[in-house]
Hints:
- By secondary structure, the chain is α/β, with parallel strands linked by helices.
- Among the domains are: 20-238, no CATH class; 503-593, no CATH class; 628-735, Immunoglobulins (Immunoglobulin-like).
- It has 25 helices and 24 strands.
- Strands 1, 4, 11, 16 and 17 form a five-stranded parallel beta sheet that branches.
- A hairpin with a 4-residue loop joins strand 5 (83-84) and strand 6 (89-90).
- Helix 22 (503-521) packs antiparallel against helix 23 and helix 22 (503-521) packs parallel to helix 25.
Amino acid sequence: MEVQSGARPVYLNIIWHQHQPLYLDPAKDQLSAPWVRTHGTKDYYDMTSILLKYPDIHFNVNLTSVLLFQLQAYYVDRLKPFVNMKSHRINTQEFFSKWEGKTDPWIDIMLKPTSSLTDNEKALLTSHSWSALSVSEIIISRFPQYKSLVGKVRKQNEELTEQDYRELKFWFSLANFDPDFLRGPVKLTTRAVINLTDLVTKRPDGSFIIRRLITEDDCNRLVADTYMILADIVPIHKKLIYKPEEHSGQIEIVTTPFYHPILPLLCDSNIAKTCQPNDPMPQRFCYPEDAEAQVEKAAYYFQKLFGQKPTGMWPGEGSVANEIIEILTRHEILWIATDEKILKRSYPTDKCVTIPYNVGSLKKPEDALAIVFRETDLSDRIGFTYKEMKPQEAIRNFITRILEFAPLPDQPDCLLTVILDGENAWEWYRYDNDGKDFLNGVYKSLTDLQKKGKVVTVTTTEYLKGNPRRNVPAHFVQDLPKIEKLWPGSWINANFDTWIGEREENRAWEYLRIAREDLAASGVKSPRTTDPVQHKGTGAWYAMMAWEEMYAAEGSDWFWWYGADQTSLSGDDSPFDIGFITHLNNIYFLARKAGGLMPQRKFNPIINPRQKRKAGTSRTMAQSDSGKVLVLFQCDARNINVPSGIFVTGNIPQLGEWKPNMVRMYDNGTHGDITAGDGIWTLAVEVPRGIEVQYKFTNSGCEGMWEPGEEFPGQHRSVQLRPQPGETQVVLMDTFGKM
């Protein structure tokens, strides 16, 4: 697309969000899930290292503290002494003598001889909610032998052999490596080289197969390679980190309140009554000091890890309210981000999404805080629309949409902010392994557009403070237009209804309030973030850990899975329920060990583990409820002559409002079409959820004329668009001339 003559550049502000909840059970000193590790090998390294190929591209990466803590403490630190960097092997005997049962259970399973696995360990591979089967079907399909093995497990029609279990644990690990490691050597910043081509070979269709019989040594080697990649995640980010004072680096690293809580609800859960006036609410939870602690802990840990203070913060789930502003400014946070639906409800109204705003304290004008708003449609296209499109079509669509925002000479600078999950989207890209072609294509296109002066990729702080090296002017926070009243809500629905307001969610808040009140009354004082590290087993250590468990229980992720609005890939949300209850129970255990007076309480499970829910989607950022669903209209016209094209018409504007031969479908591999020239015509259209869509097809006629078309006088096809929660697409397959 050509931008208008005289248009100035679009400043593109991408923020990739990377997060996992706390899977730690302190009583066991073990993580209960493998997802920090699997996303580490599949996403956290390569999502940033890809910029080594594109030195002109800048963006932001949000790495939450709770994610980094688990990564460093439970994988990097514990595996490091036992890895031979030359042979790429783990000294299993020495590792087990120190840390057996102290990383995640699947690490131990990989290192143990398969013949010695217990029934429980085999169940972790085959029937646990987070088993070797809990990988997206699209990923599994790229490994035909893995797919066949998964099918055998699911059918349960024959007993698995020892080799089956060995290959199952191998595939569960290997399938969660970024495909770059499977295609050839990748040199890490530590100079270690990861190259798995001796284990698998790539076939012409893009799938991978095992070269030979898998052994225990191969499984050991994968653990060593896993360590090497995980150990390089912080270094690659430090290598590319943007330093505002020096105007150097490519990525701004963003943090989040430590355990990823919904910060406004910690300040006062009654804030939700403003944006959810008709929802039942639990008894008030009001601990602004906990919100302060979560921010302080995150800022302190960030500086310790990266050697500089954070300037940006993504509040958990983009959750904002006026009540959190002074907390953030006290810790020298320069900017925060949320969704444009918050902007539309804030005061003054009629604000533009492509301008950052000053949302600093009205009481202290010097405490300026900038806020940027994600452009919802463009962000959601990457996460949910492009997964069903061919890479080149998705790239064109994304770039075209960006250029539509180019400002004219008399308009203010345009900061186009795109925010989405940087780890879970890619495993659903059907025609693009891990989204690699899309990402490389986008960065290459943006590099070319920067040379032409049409787009400039920036970090948020770079845009606010300016970067003379790249001719980016400053946009000082004090000079930005002011938002006087910030609407309370999250990036989902501009409210908090994903975390509070449903029966299960409210019960969890009641549990949290009771535990918090008991801890406050116990006499166990909350330590300061800057207090020296306590020796394990001392009263001060138990006190510190009791409060850590309290803060961990305040994390948003437990509340996310309660209620009917979100369901995990397996359909079993009970592991998150168990995790939440475990944190609560640990508060009481640890506080008593610290000498606190805690009552005897029993928190019963909130979710019935025997009641399996409808399977949903993977988790970190689900699609914001834009009120729309992507409908894929498909018309099989293989048995008729099509001179020029198939058209669709119907009762909505996107289908021409019953004007025939106006809306063309495609059989050229674009617009959602899968295979060019196969006679199946396709059109992808976004329409509002819940409406009834009526439609018919016509064949190569003149605009406004019904002939030649389907001969159903007074009849039409009809569908009610009511997808299940988490479902973002509806596929309609019809045959021309057949109702």
